[in-house]
């Protein structure tokens, strides 16, 4: 037992990637138990380690944590990435939940029917460009500070940076009209812990294409 | 300006109902501005009151709060319904996020394609009976206390009670094998604030059927 958190998930970005980003940005070393086949998932279930029979699951501080938002909130609180009071926490939650809408669409590209992929990708680009990125650019412009909330790095900045890398995979030009978002992305990417995480060989997972997911599914009974 | 929170949403349960439950259980009087047609929604958007152009939106404490989870977390914190420390908050979040999976399926019945309604309803019943209710019954059994976390009413108990009323609409027998959940439902329902909320004439919204939603949609450009 190393004392490090252990992340249980498939060998893809999926719903664990935001947790990987947050731990990495907080400078927390972690181990991964990658689920490579149905048997691995069954073992976790049969051992009673998954409260709702689902992953992500993170073993940390003596607990088997499930549900990605619960895990992210715990990590953010523990490592002071959740603002200084309830009003800052509200802002961080509002912004993070907006981002979650876009992440959900990116999951839908992979999980949804193939004939809907192009439509979902168009929706991602449209929502990023016309709804979400303008909202976050406006926040940064309104206070002129380097981070979204309270002039301090938080869960919101880290997940927005992750999101920006994600949507660029769909359209590299999406950040063109958002100089403050680009600056935030650069600023967060240059933090030593994040810089290390962005380098090859880290625990960051490659962008998951539908084809990669189809290949992975063959080892599972989804 | 009465100082009461103002809830902006359609005249249905939808993503605002959990917020209504939580405020009601906390004994907080609130006003509602019901959005009856597209012009009402456009006005909110054009006035710049919706950060991501979406409702729910709750005006409270001088803020225009959006994203239902952010709003619920703020209310829970403010009214001491979020546990006493970060470990209790984690448990409350884990349980609440599990419930959210079932609530999402109930939205899918209304929002998804008609030909998938029966399949989604079956999935709700299956997941409630075989995944989620057993998990929550196990929590109550494990500590023998009257509430899910910390022997004290929290967001988790209130939303689970709401969820139990919701899934009963799909199958009244779903709670049969879960005596502790039934006891929790009764306990929470008998709290004076909740009892009042459950009576006719309160701001609680009726169970939304797909037909009701189809009718409502006629006044909107969804």
TrEMBL record, chain A:
GO CC annotations, alphabetized: cytosol; extracellular exosome
Cross-referenced InterPro entries: Glutathione-S-Trfase_C-like, Glutathione-S-Trfase_C_sf, Glutathione_S-Trfase, Glutathione_S-Trfase_N, GST_alpha, GST_C, GST_superfamily, Thioredoxin-like_sf
EC number: 2.5.1.18
Residues covered by the GST N-terminal domain: 3-83
Keywords: Transferase
Gene Ontology biological process: glutathione metabolic process; xenobiotic metabolic process
Domain GST C-terminal: 85-207
Catalytic EC class: transferase
Annotated GO MF terms: glutathione transferase activity
Family: Belongs to the GST superfamily. Alpha family.
Name of the protein in its database record: glutathione transferase
Name of the gene this protein is made from: LOC100715394
UniProtKB/TrEMBL annotation, chain B:
GO biological-process terms attached to the record: glutathione metabolic process; xenobiotic metabolic process
Record protein name field: glutathione transferase
Keyword Protease: no
GO cellular component: cytosol; extracellular exosome
All copies of domain GST C-terminal, residue ranges: 85-207
One Gene Ontology term of the molecular function aspect: glutathione transferase activity
Membership in a protein family: Belongs to the GST superfamily. Alpha family.
Annotated EC: 2.5.1.18
Pfam families from the UniProt entry: GST_C_3, GST_N
Span of domain GST N-terminal: 3-83
Keywords carried by this UniProt record: Transferase
């Amino acid at each position: 037992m190393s004392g490090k958190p252990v992340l249980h998930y498939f060998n893809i970005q999926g719903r664990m990637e935001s947790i990987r980003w947050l731990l990495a940005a907080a400078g927390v070393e972690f181990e991964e138990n990658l689920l490579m086949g149905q048997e691995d998932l069954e073992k976790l279930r049969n051992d009673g380690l998954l409260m709702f029979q689902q992953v992500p699951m993170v073993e940390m501080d003596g607990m088997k944590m499930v549900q990605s938002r619960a895990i992210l909130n715990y990590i953010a609180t523990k490592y002071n990435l959740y603002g200084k009071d309830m009003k800052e926490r509200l802002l961080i939650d509002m912004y993070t939940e907006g981002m979650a809408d876009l992440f959900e669409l990116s999951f839908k590209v992979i999980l949804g029917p193939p004939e809907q992929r192009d439509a979902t990708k168009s929706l991602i680009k449209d929502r990023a460009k016309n709804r979400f990125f303008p909202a976050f650019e406006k926040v940064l412009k309104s206070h002129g500070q380097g981070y979204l909330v309270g002039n301090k790095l938080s869960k919101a900045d880290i997940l927005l940076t992750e999101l920006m890398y994600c949507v660029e995979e769909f359209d590299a030009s999406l950040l063109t009209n958002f100089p403050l978002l680009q600056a935030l992305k650069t600023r967060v990417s240059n933090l030593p812990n994040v810089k290390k995480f962005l380098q090859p060989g880290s625990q960051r997972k490659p962008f998951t294409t539908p084809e990669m997911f189809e290949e992975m599914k063959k080892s599972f009974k989804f």
